[in-house]
Amino acid sequence: MTGGFAHDAHWGQTRNVKDAPAEQPGVPAWLRVSAGNAWRLLVLVAAAYLIIQVIGQLQLVAVALFGSLVITSVLRPLVNLLDRIKWVPRVLGTVIGFIAALGVIGGIGTFVWVSVGNQIPLLTDELINGINSINDMLSRLPAPFDGLDLDQLAKNLTEWIRLNSSMLLTEVINRFSIVAEVLTGAILALFCSVFFINSGSAMWQWLLSQFRERTAAKLNAAGHAGWSTFAGYTRGIVIVGVTNGLFAGTALAIMGIPLATPIGVLVAMGTFIPYVGSAIAMTVAVVVALAAKGPWWALAVVALVALIGQIEGHLLQPLIMAKQVRLHPVVVAMTVVIGALTAGIVGAIVSVPAVAVCWAVFSRLRAMSAAEAITGTVEESP
Q: CA 138 → CA 135, 151, 156, 371, distances in Å?
């Protein structure tokens, strides 16, 4: 290295020696690099913590916004398809999309309600028989497993309700307030999704116009990357959920397990929590099978749970979700756990798409920065 420039054999580029950072005597290079990365990581963690705290204070708004984005990602392709028809205005296409979605949801809900209503008496009888069978088994065991006195249990439950009636009333009031919040969030989500579907592009262009051209270009690229990942994830998880639900419901119906249809719907909804949601939902099927048909059928349902997990993990997820969620399964599992610990079921559902979107945006911005750096180096090279 004898002149002002040196040739970098690794990159095949010419760089200015004067631009190299000055070595600090007595401080190893690995320590300087580690310290620099450590404080940057601390800043990122602090920023993420503050964002989570703010979202926690505005949880209703955040959940409603997330719901509106989910609705938009599912219905927007249909509205865009209708928009290509000249005689269908976009407003009319939006209305048709929402009517179709409400029709599908209403049809599924009605079907599930009818199925549950027809099978509840049978399930109640089977559940009582199952409890009696368990009671008989326990009565043959040595003390303290000398059987369960169901009449005494009923008396104790009635006495407990009488003594804790005020607490139960308070709990009912709290439940009503939760229902009111859910309805408010649902209305807000529908309201926002109407505007996102009908004029989301115009809203995005207005937002970009508030920034300088170079910043707007980066924001536009990052926004498209994030939205593409989120929309693809949402549509993919819906496909995986519907597939899991149909498979579980059909298999349970063939096996003669009661409430096969609502359990299938529950499995479909559980898919929104990757890897563990469907298994947790199928636990209900195991309990129902145990009460209705005995332990051997419960073991068969357990085998079905394992089979559904294998199909989802090794077939559906790689085929449908691999291009959308480019995260390692360990990262996904840890994200679900952290989300659940932070914000319960809502956190478990929202955490994976949020991390996937953040990673997509980061990857896009990093690629743009690398391209700019290479372009700048080539232009400045002698």
A: 5, 16, 20, 71
